[in-house]
């Protein structure tokens, strides 16, 4: 999830705007945590598909 779509429960503002201390803390925490970007997600999906194909060939 991206910060630009989150709404703060404290001030009801968009977290990316950083209106209150809670917004700013949440924004910093999410920026530090990183997360999966689309390229990493695609790479993981391809690995899973490859693993399933190998298992199907070994069992059949």
**Gross morphology:** rod-shaped
Low-confidence parts: none
- Total beta-strand segments: 0
Count of distinct structural domains: 1
Largest sheet composition: none
Which structural traits does this protein have?
about 60% helix, about 60 residues, rod-shaped, mainly alpha
Structural account:
The protein is mainly alpha-helical. It has one domain. The chain is built from two helices and no strands. The protein is rod-shaped and about 60 Å long. The termini are far apart. The mean pLDDT is 83.
Q: Summary?
A:
The protein is an all-alpha fold. Helices cover 58% and strands 0% of the residues.
Topology:
Elements: H1 21-33, H2 38-59
């Amino acid at each position: 999830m991206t910060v630009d779509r989150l709404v703060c429960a404290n001030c009801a503002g968009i977290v990316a705007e950083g209106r209150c201390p809670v917004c700013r803390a949440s924004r910093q925490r999410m920026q530090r945590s990183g997360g999966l970007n689309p390229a990493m997600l695609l790479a993981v999906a391809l690995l899973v598909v490859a693993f399933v194909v190998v298992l199907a060939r070994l069992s059949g």
